[in-house]
From TrEMBL:
Subcellular location: Cell membrane
Biological process (GO), any one: protein transport
Membrane-traversing stretches: 35-55, 97-120, 140-168, 226-244, 264-285
UniProt-listed PROSITE patterns: ABC_TM1
Name of protein: ABC transporter permease
Location of the ABC transmembrane type-1 domain: 95-285
Source taxon at top rank: Bacteria
Amino acid sequence: MSDAASNDVIDQVERSRSSKIWNRFVGILRLSPTAAVGLMIILFFALLAIFAPWIMPHDPVAAYTDRVLQAPSAEHWFGTDGNGMDVFSRVIYGAKFGFGIAIPAVLISLLIGVPVGLIAGYRGGLLDEVLMRFFDGLRVFPSIILALAVVAATGQSLLNVVLVLGLLDSPVFARVVRAEVLALRSSNFVESAIAAGNPTWRILFVHLLPNAIQGAMAQTAVRAAWAVRISATLAFLGVGIQAPTPEWGAMIRQGAEFMVSGQWWVGLYPGLALIFLVFGLNLFGDGLQDLMDPRRRTAK
């Protein structure tokens, strides 16, 4: 095959792949416009996080002592903060922490909650009661109060914030998976698997998990929005990631101090970024639930 023919084949494959991706996106848009809009917002912030080093016009932690609290201008689009740092660059870099907290926290919640929900729902009895009562105990206290106490005790670091949020949110996934397993454990395919001599781990992770995971997956985007919001709240309250690290919650906290004196831009722009990311995650999560549950889509 000649080089020209080979290039034509490669171009056709790439066009076919692009067409499939576009058709899939159009399909999502038709089935759930909410999910499509939320996905576009999430992708926008994801691109900011990925390409932040090339998009930021200034170093996000570089302090310009001669430019403290400058209003938005051609050089500093979102103005500067109380340390003379460029707010626009810091808002862009803050997207890294939004995703850097939300994604690991949700993964930890899934890794804890899904196996517990599987075991509790399948075994039932005393084991179910003990596991669920422990998780209910985590949900009794207001999440923000418990997160404040744990992070304050363990230390203000990104890793501690992620671990705490992942642990506190795991009962949500455990409850969802357990409910699905309770409805499935008497099904014919489970009884057939037991009769065939399959070990418990295989019944749980091969037969039950694929049928019980949909509800949990539909919750991931909503719980990621919760993780972003709580992590920003912790930073705003002075517990969690702190300045000069460009995290939106910490930036809003600093901006609140200058709002009364007229420097509104310090806290406004990170606040808007936080609102839009949480809004996009919630939209995508709601649309994802519609896509995975046709009954909800029909009701709408």
